Amino acid sequence: MKITVLGTGYLGATHAASMAEMGFEVLGVDVDPAKVDALSRGELPFHEPGLGELLRKHVDTGCLRFTTSYEEAGAFGDVHFVGVGTPQRAGSFAADMRYVDAAVGSIAAAATKDCVIAGKSTVPVGSARRLADLARASARDGVDVSLVWNPEFLREGYAVEDTLTPDRMVLGAEDAAAEAVMRRVYARQLEAGVPLIVTDFETAELVKVAANAFLATKISFINALSELTEAVGGDIRTLADAIGLDERIGRKFLNAGVGFGGGCLPKDIRALRARAAELGVEQSVRFLAEVDDINVRRRGHTVDTVTQMLGGSVVGKQVAVLGAAFKPDSDDVRDSPALDIAARLHSIGAEVAVYDPKANANAAKRYPRLDYVDSLEAAVTGAEVVVLLTEWAEFKTMTPEQLHPLVAVPQILDGRNVLDPERWSAAGFSYRALGRRATV
Ligand code: UDX
Q: Which residues lie in coiled coils (predicted)?
């Protein structure tokens, strides 16, 4: 069985390399020749732990190739995975489906043998049924093209692990033959005991957005509570630990801080609201507007806290910003709270030095006017306040003794609640956090 992966961005590149690792011959397809050239040389255009090695290994053995040609893909693949983007549409909350539509239509028209198209992109519920019709209508005479929906749950930073050993797999399949093909594709995971939930198209599409909406809600819940603990002088981490011990709640995704960002959570909750409104059930997910508001409020609150720490004005003050990526182990700055906060501080007059172990280059493309430096030491030297915004290991393990001789004023805002307040204040820092008692 031969596999193609349409779209070689974050999801597609990971899926293609993982499929090669599972023993398939894989062809990755992208309309961007520069991306195809880089991947064909074994170069990964973004940072993801473990993925570069996997890519090089399978490009070298020839099991993994890349092309811009749908013709070539149509002749090659028995299963075509669709992993192209569904960005937020300009001027709206809805997802832009034009890349998915083009990929499905083009591959169905190019297929010269019977095949399965497996959708992976995050799409508005109802898309798979429409795309199944589009695929059938575009297929050549005598070629059977059927569609399944197979959403992706991978997390940046753990993308390879999440693809090779997921905690569950979901398949929207309404045709027994196509389901059987997909069971062969995932034989390795099924043998290892990974649960496979087979359902209709609509439920499969919704599982993905429901999971992301739940995670976003969990984060905004704890962030809302952190507004309360901050007001009364409580400790949000202890509170999260305590409620998290209840197995029904669970401790994961209860880390309060500057809020969620990235290419998925913010966009997906907005797209779900837009889709619910189109379906006439807007009120069903109205609470997601509040989830979004709480999240956006974190950024303004962080800027206000820094301003307060600097005596009421940031103008001309040296601010060290630690982190630009939306989360650690990633160079992704899409909708990053860290970078947004850095840019806001700069826009109200602060002198901002940003250091991120991997995301400086991407951040500089987005906000070229900030000062990007290439070490923690360079960022904090002369700082009147240090602001930790992305919890890279390097920042979690830095010590007050290391920073104290370098900073102009020993004060730190822990935007991710990852430092030990006692330790930092004992070493002479005034410590502030989002949702914890301040120490002076
Ligand atoms: C998310 C989903 O987890 C994944 O299943 C889906 O396929 C894609 O979207 P990802 O965007 O890679 O994955 O990041 P995730 O680890 O979910 O973090 C999202 C954001 O939430 C980050 O900005 C992170 O910093 C933030 N976050 C996460 C918190 O603020 N607190 C937490 O407790 C957890």
A: none
Question: What is the sign, positive or negative, of the torsion defined by CA atoms of 108, 111, 115, 117?
Answer: negative
221-259 pLDDT, tens digit per residue, is 999 999 999 999 999 999 999 999 999 999 999 999 999
Query: Would strands 411-414 and 385-388 be described as parallel, antiparallel, or unpaired?
Result: parallel
Nearest CA to ligand 1 atom 1: 155
Domains of the chain: 2-199 (3.40.50.720), 216-439 (3.40.50.720)
Pocket flag, ligand 1, residue 257 (CB < 6 Å): yes
- Residues 190 and 196 sit within 8 Å (Cβ to Cβ): yes
**Per-residue pLDDT tens over the stretch 338-374:** 999 999 999 999 999 999 999 999 999 999 999 999 9
Q: What is the pTM assigned to this prediction? A: 0.95
Give the angle subtended at the CA of 121 by the CAs of 117 and 123, to the nearest 5°. 105
Q: How far is CA 75 from CA 78, 117, 428, in A?
A: 9, 14, 67
Hey, whose CA ends up nearest to atom 33 of ligand 1?
253
Whether the CB of 255 sits within 6 Å of ligand 1: yes
Q: Which atom of ligand 1 is nearest to the CA of 155?
A: 12
